[in-house]
Design brief:
The chain is built from 6 helices and 14 strands. It is an alpha+beta fold and about 260 residues long.
């Protein structure tokens, strides 16, 4: 397939966009030179963001989906090329009120950017997390039936395999590496998705999130929970996939994929 657009896409959980911008996010993005940027965990609404700073980099088309609760969650897609269509949410108020998902349709593929819930605060949110995953799979179903080429990105809040987490033997009972969470990821993969980073790198110790505690980032005691997944029919067009651990605007780091 010949793409109208050769694209580099970046995904980044910012853990607060205003904080990240204060730590040099805009300058980093200028050097990264991506065509599309997906953010998660904005913790701000559009009125609180210096949108002009992103437009100055060429991101003329910015789509923000803030949570109703101020200072919480939220997603965004920034694009140098105007998508054919953009939609916010899954149509399920419990998730949409938290600004969890935004979709952009381009000529050659559909991009879904999601901030998947964390279950670390207790049983209620863990159940919410697992329900979100099930509903997300239902959300994907019509696109998959239409054989749409899809990129799914975001903070999944799950390490899929032991290679994706430091000392996996210590985390079997920890949200983010629970057997049922990893089993859901297996099911997701079986729908016909490929982990783009693993197409290019089979090495351990490649992480995208580190706790702020105990010098975890300096020791590289991390978790890989941020992904770009592509449908099999898009796999031949995946040119590269990378992680940028030296970008330190958040407790996460950015990930990227190039299609063409």
């Amino acid at each position: 397939m010949n793409y109208e657009l050769n694209m580099k896409l970046i995904s980044y959980n910012l853990n607060g966009i205003r904080s990240a911008m204060g730590k040099g996010l805009v300058d980093w993005l200028a050097g990264a030179d991506a065509d599309v940027v997906c953010f998660q965990e904005l913790k701000a609404c559009e009125e609180q963001i210096d949108v002009a700073a992103f437009k100055a980099l060429g991101y003329e088309h910015c789509y923000w989906f803030a949570a109703q609760k101020r200072g919480y969650s939220g997603t965004a897609i920034l694009s140098k090329t105007k998508p054919q269509q953009v939609s916010c949410g899954m149509g399920i108020p419990e998730y949409d009120n938290e600004g969890r998902l935004i979709t952009a349709q381009y000529k050659d593929f559909t991009l879904i950017n999601s901030y998947f819930p964390s279950g670390t605060t207790g049983e209620i949110r863990q159940a919410f997390k697992m329900q979100y995953f099930d509903d997300f799979r239902k959300f994907l179903s019509p696109l998959l039936q239409q054989q749409t080429k899809i990129l799914v990105t975001g903070d999944f809040n799950i390490c899929h395999k032991p290679i994706d987490i430091n000392h996996p033997e210590r985390h079997n009972n920890v949200s983010g590496f629970l057997p049922e969470e990893r089993a859901w990821m297996d099911t997701f993969e079986a729908l016909g998705f490929v982990d783009t980073f693993r197409l290019f790198c089979a090495q351990p110790a490649n992480y995208t999130w580190w706790s702020y505690r105990a010098g975890a980032r300096q020791k590289n005691m991390g978790w890989r929970i941020d992904y770009f997944w592509a449908t099999e029919n898009l796999k031949p067009n995946i040119k590269s996939a990378n992680i940028y651990p030296n970008a330190v605007h958040s407790d996460h780091c950015p990930v990227s994929v190039e299609v063409g």
